[in-house]
Amino acid sequence: MQDLDLGIGEGADAVVTFVLDHFTPALDIIAAAIGFVTGGIRDALVALPAPAAIAIIVLLALWRVGWKFAVFAVAALLLITGMGLWERMMETLSLVLAATAIAMVVGIPLGIAMARSNVVQAVARPVLDLMQTMPAFVYLIPAAMFFGLGAVPGTIATVIFAMPPVVRLTNLGIRQVHHEFIEAGEAFGCTPVQLLMKVQIPNALPSIMAGVNQTIMLSLSMVVIASMIGAGGLGNTVLTGIQRLDVGTGFEGGLAVVVLAVLLDRITQSFSAPRQGFLLKRLFGAAAAQKNEAPSGALVAPKA
Amino acid sequence: MDSLTPLPQDVAGDDAAPPVKIALRNVYKVFGDHSDDALRMVRAGRDKADIQAETGCTVGVDDASFEIRAGEIFVIMGLSGSGKSTLLRLINRLIEPSSGAILIDGQDITKMSRRELTAVRRSTMGMVFQSFALLPNRTVLDNAAFGLEVAGMAPAERHAKARAALEAVGLGAYVDSRPDQLSGGMKQRVGLARALAGEPSVLLMDEAFSALDPLIRTEMQDELIRLQAERSRTVVFVSHDLDEAMRIGDRIAIMQHGRVVQVGTPDEIVMSPANDYVRSFFRNVDVSHVFRAGDIARETQVTLIERRGMAIPAALERMRRHDRDVAIVVGRDKTYHGMVSVDSLAEAARRAEPDPYHRALLPGVEPIAAADTLSEVMGRVAESPHPLPVVDEDRRYVGSISKTALLQTLDRSGN
């Protein structure tokens, strides 16, 4: 019995080999650029003394969320320090931030392009579906082949997995800007760029920020997997736990990931659904209110 | 109709008419993918339902041609789906016309490039929207300054102008508020200020007051009329509300299924509706608010011209011949002097007093001003035992209103 074989696997193999044979210089440039971003953020975060970093995160929590959450943040961060995972957590955070930054730089313009053109949307949609559903290990291997081991392929794999929500929600947010706002913008003489910058993006901002939040959360789940190709961070702790069948180490690593996830989620969510800690609200008064208030009644996208 | 024909000619008429500000020439708008085919069918006079069935296109505006004069409040009226909002959006090309010419100050905007169009929108046109369309992330001041901002005006200058516009609509104290902190009426004042800040010569208003409750709506209409009178702006106002159209409109265009079926002054449209559709608008309208005393006053009464040496017997003879109990005494320039009755004249003649007409004037007959609406004068006409005289602003006699004439007019609205 002969199985039908369309040769798709061989095709993919051939493409990877072809890229490796002919585009190595280009790959090196990409790797250097991403390495620069990832390395820069990582160096800055690791160099930051732990008390200073804790102070910044707690103040952020106090300002954006509230004093209860700030208390939780203090306890959570002390717990991580107590487990001796501070440096690893900062590595993971740097990977998440680098991946999110790249995802935003690529994803938000792509989302805008999708909102403005049905053709772009039709093309981009299946690609986004592919990025989200393809098992991560499948592109982890070629990523390592193209860019070697380390933080760079880890970041790239994370970007691939985590970018779709910010693209989708940017697209959705801009498409859902009320028709009359667009008409008002046009009627008062906006150029297309002015319409985008002054009407569409400000009104889509809550949706875009919800996308950024989702991208951060997906990055965090991906960096653990990315540690298999040497991305480092808390993923290494978890991996070590698995490899040595050391339940305690694995649990500590996992707990640190959860704590980081909760902190990142609550703080970034506060930027899409405006809410303020009452203490700092009084301190900063109207100035802070004006800077950070997003439109009320605006769309807050459902979690992907 | 016939009972009301002797009407004074429309005083706002054609003498010294202001220049044409906006002109539409054979403007069509067809929505859909095969608009060329559909357009050909519309021009051939095919039924809109057929066109829809054959091409999938809907006809928004069908051969609209009219002119709007500078300084005029021009109301486009029709039921929902009649194409009135589409027609308004063709004027600033928020919707691209399928064919035809739209001239603003003599320039055809349908032939303009994107850049020219943007320049015209910034310099000559302001727009007010039904649901306000205020940007929620901006303060009231920045909303009002929006048009100036996109036109590239420096912050200090545009904020000064926006502040002035907000003060003109009575919102000077709310510059730092957010739109969601304001009531509906206040929001629309911001919308109006935003449209006025750039000092446009044309104001496009799309059902601007429809979302407001009736009291606020009337207030806003008065506000609009005041603002329009201060600087003679051309206002194109879309409304589905006949009362509103009659109240503020200098002229009204009535749309039905995408066609402009009638253009005229409120009086012309009430007096001689072009078809049953137009007539149907008045069914629910209280004409007592629409008609003015001058519109239905008729010269059916005997008028006596007060002059020296005029004998009373001649006057009594004329009244008897016309079978009238009362007569109106006017001067040679038709100024109203008063009303006399057969009895009062006979009494004056019996006493052989000098200046007989003057002595015979009935006490307590106060003439009605021609500009008063019927609702304002209804009570007095009903209570008066005889027809009441109507005078214009120079106190010249224009006719009188009898109970019968009043009832006939009011009755017309019911048919």
What is the CATH class name of chain A? Answer: Mainly Alpha
The parts of chain A where pLDDT drops under 50 for at least 5 residues are 275-304
Mean pLDDT of chain B: 85
DSSP summary: helix tally of chain A:
13
Fourth-tier CATH superfamily name of the domain at 294-412 in chain B: CBS-domain
Structure characterization notes:
The complex is a heterodimer of chains A (304) and B (415). Chain A has 304 residues and is mainly alpha-helical. Chain A has a single domain, classed as MetI-like fold (Orthogonal Bundle). Helix content of chain A is 82%, strand content 0%. Chain A contains 13 helices and no strands. Chain A has helices spanning 8-22, 24-47, 50-64, 67-82, 86-116, 118-133, 136-147, 151-175, 179-187, 192-226, 234-243, 247-272, 278-292. Chain A is globular, with a radius of gyration of 22 Å. With 415 residues, chain B is α/β, with parallel strands linked by helices. Chain B has a domain at 294-412: CBS-domain (Roll). Helix content of chain B is 40%, strand content 22%. Chain B is built from 19 helices and 16 strands. Chain B has helices at residues 35-43, 48-55, 84-91, 114-124, 140-144, 146-150, 155-168, 184-197, 214-230, 242-248, 266-271, 276-282, 287-290, 293-296, 312-321, 342-351, 356-360, 374-383, 403-412, and strands at residues 20-31, 58-69, 73-78, 99-104, 107-108, 125-128, 202-206, 234-239, 251-256, 259-264, 302-305, 326-330, 336-341, 368-369, 388-391, 397-401. Chain B starts with 19 loop residues before the first strand and ends with a helix. Chains A and B meet through α9 and α10 of A and α4, β6 and α6 of B. Chain B: It is found in: Cell inner membrane. Chain B: It catalyses: a quaternary ammonium(out) + ATP + H2O = a quaternary ammonium(in) + ADP + phosphate + H(+). Chain B: Belongs to the ABC transporter superfamily. Chain B: This is Quaternary amine transport ATP-binding protein. Chain B: InterPro entries: AAA+_ATPase, ABC_osmolyte_uptake_ATP-bind, ABC_transporter-like_ATP-bd, ABC_transporter-like_CS, CBS_dom, CBS_dom_sf, Gly-betaine_transp_ATP-bd, P-loop_NTPase.
